[in-house]
Structures are given as structure tokens and as C-alpha cells.
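Service request form, structural biology core

Requester: graduate student, group of Dr. S.
Request type: structure prediction, single chain
Budget code: on file
Notes: please return the result as C-alpha cells.

Sequence provided:
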Amino acid sequence: MDLSPTPSGATGRQVSAAMQLGRDAGPWRFHTDVLLDLLGWDGCSRATATAEHDDDVALVVPDARSVDVLLLGVDPETVAEVDLHHAAVEVVARPSLVDDSTCEVRFTPDAVRRTWRADVTGAHARAAVVMAADAAGAAAAAAEAAVAHVQEREQFGAPLATLQAVQHRAADMAVDVRLAADAVLDAAGVIDRGAPADEVGLVVPHAKLGVERSARVTASAHQLAGGQGILASAPYHRWYRRTLAAAVLLGDVRHHRAVVARAALAGQRRFG
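Core staff response, request fulfilled:
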């Protein structure tokens, strides 16, 4: 299933690249690079960024041990640059589902080199769409691999794909893959045409909620793959872990569902 958009803007191109990375289970840093660019990082030092932090603790920081600077959005319009080599900084390894380099960074205000103004909310929103695109790509690849497997694998003298239960599972996966991808492509299009912030604020949560569908697809693919699903050499676990990690970063599913619910109750419904 071809889910790649026809890139018409910066976000469209980023979404296209992220989907391919998800398919390939490639490097897990693209959303971080997108976030760095959107936050206005123009330094020559090696840098990383995260949206997950609580006061003086930054959570889920990729590559923190191999870079020099951490960017944090301290409020909707302010970015802080944290010196990771400062004496007041402690970097603790916290390997994640898909990235062994992930760390937790603890720091004090003394470690902040400088701050500047930026659209932090918008940056996090676009990075969330890119991450959802990565998950959609992983789900598409997992579904294709699982369908190919059940078409070839025979049980009781016939391919598994002839079983009605398997067919129903494959149909559910196809629907979830399409809806997750459509939500991502819709959000990218809205962002790239320069839509007002309130409209962007509605499509981004829908895109991020699509990660829940992507995770469901990769879990089903894992199950349909049978014994192959538990092999470290097989890709199913990489696709599955990728979608699980995406579900909790840049606003978890509960957060984005609450945003959609508030908008619906306020009469700001957006369907299709």
C-alpha cells in the first residue's frame, strides 16, 4: 500500500521521509532533527531536543551523551539552550523501546546558556505529525509483511489467508493503516497551507491519535506472523516497538484525545 504523499510543502516532505523511515525501521532521530530546526537551532555544536520535561528534568532525550546542547521549550514562546557539559547537569541513561541512546537530563538554571523566542507550540505540533507519520509507515510495512506471510503459510492444508478470522484481522489492519495515514497527510496539508493555529490545533491531535491505530496494526501483524514474530532477526518487533514509543512522545494519546474531546464539546468538530 503506497501511503507516500505528494510533497507540496516542508511538512509534506518531512512526512514522506518519516513514513519511509518507519517502513524501514530506520534511525529513530528524524523527529528530533525536525524539532531542532523548528525551534530555531542554528549553532555549530551538536544538539538534541525534547518536548518531554518537568521543571529541571528533561525526559526521553536522544543522544544526550554524544551531543553538547539540549533545547527545551520552557513555555509556548521561549526556547532554552542547556549546556550538557555544565557541572550542574546530570545525564542518566534511560534506554527506550527503540533507542538505546535515550537519556534523562537533570539540570539547574545555571546550566541554561541562553533563551530565545520561538513558536514552541507550533514546533511541537509539526514534530508530532512527523512522529505519527513514522508510526503510519511502520504500520503499513507490518501489515504488508503479515499479509504476505498468511498468504504463503499453510495450516490444515490451506493458506492461513483462507481462514475467515485471519481475513477479518487483515481487513481491520487495512482500515487502520489507511485512517492513520490519512490523518497524517491531512495534518501536513493543513500546516503547509498556513492554516490558522486553531485549525492546526485540531488536525494535529487527530494525526497523533492515529498512532494508536498504527500500534494496533503492528501488534496484529506480530500475532499473524506466528513464530516469526518473536525472532530478533525479523522486523515485526521493530515496527511494534516504534509505534509504542511514538504513542507516548510529543503528547501521549490521552492528552490528544482530551484536546479532540474539548473541541468537539465546544462545537469545533472537524470530520474528514
